[in-house]
From TrEMBL:
Gene3D superfamilies linked to this entry: 1.20.1280.80
GO CC aspect terms: cell surface; outer membrane
Domain of life: Bacteria
All copies of domain Hypersensitivity response secretion-like HrpJ, residue ranges: 64-217
Protein name as catalogued: Type III secretion protein W
Domain Type III secretion system effector delivery regulator TyeA stretches: 289-367
InterPro entries per record: HrpJ-like, T3SS_LcrE, T3SS_TyeA, T3SS_TyeA-rel, TyeA_sf
Stretches the record annotates as Disordered: 1-31, 57-76
GO terms under biological process: negative regulation of protein secretion; protein secretion by the type III secretion system
Amino acid sequence: MSRIDAFNPATPSFDTALHQGGAQGGQSAVGHFGGQQVQVDDANSVLTDAAEEISLHHSEKAESKHSSERRKEATRAMEMMSPEAIMAYMDASQSQGEPEELVQLAKRMLSGQGDPAAQARKAFGEPTQQFMALQYALQQGEREGAAPEILDSLREALDDLEMEHGPRIRADINTIGTAAEGAQGRAEVSQFQATYRDVVLGNNSLSGTLRLALERFGDGDFAGGLARLIKALGNDLAAARPSGDPSRLQSLVQDLYHLSVAATVLDDSRALLEGLAAKHGIALGSAPGLMQDLVGVSAEKWVAGSRFTALAEKFGAGGVAPQIQFLTGVKLLLRDMPPKVFIDADQRQTVFQAVQDALDAAIDREDY
């Protein structure tokens, strides 16, 4: 299978060769970095080792690039990808049925009948796939000696896509190898790409990033999801044209590393809710949902005990005994939450005091 390296002709990078299947769960993942083969034993080793190596490898590169150079780089036109790289991307993203479909679309674009941009939008709903189709048609037209006005219309359509969706397109291209790993269909590839873009191109706080990760990965392999995001960030950073400011991408690597401990908190949340269901007959609640609520509280500046009493009732712990068990467990969950999720140390202490107040109130009710 072809490598998708047209945007990274000289820079050492994570191996984005496209493998059928890919690593899943606890299986080893094998790739290349700096010309050397790298084997990752499991998700947790990715979270620790990859985060450290990515930061060390790119810190000097990120610091040395002047901001004016980055602005200039962000506005220049995208490099052309080879037809093989385009086909490899489309195959990895599972965006088309057969390669012949892309060939036929290029022929329609080069026929001069219809707007190439509109034809690309009709064929593909996402900007990156549209970008691939237009690039493929442009190169085909240049080889065949198509009319200059047709080639100009293709270049204009590509320029418009770059202006409107450049960072998104670069994010998709730079990380397609990771997005395709283990994906069972187009929907899974697209979901990971959307999650990566939301993390990298959004303006989330650390708590916002955690809530997003819980929403996307909480019901499955949460630690594995974070590991894939870190790996994708490494691919993006190593590309000749990253999707965003390398300094910010490097900072996100560290953020995700800090969030790795949240996998344990998620497991403990699940155990707490299962214990409540077994002991008190309460309907089993959602562990990712509980964690998202707790992360939300961590971002609130003013928190009272009533906030946690209401949370207990939301999860079915309205009675005194189940409420005491719930609040005792929540107190431990908050203690183990990544400290940087909270606004600051004072607010963290305020949250601890609020849950203690709610617990004390429940215990007082038990005494009567």
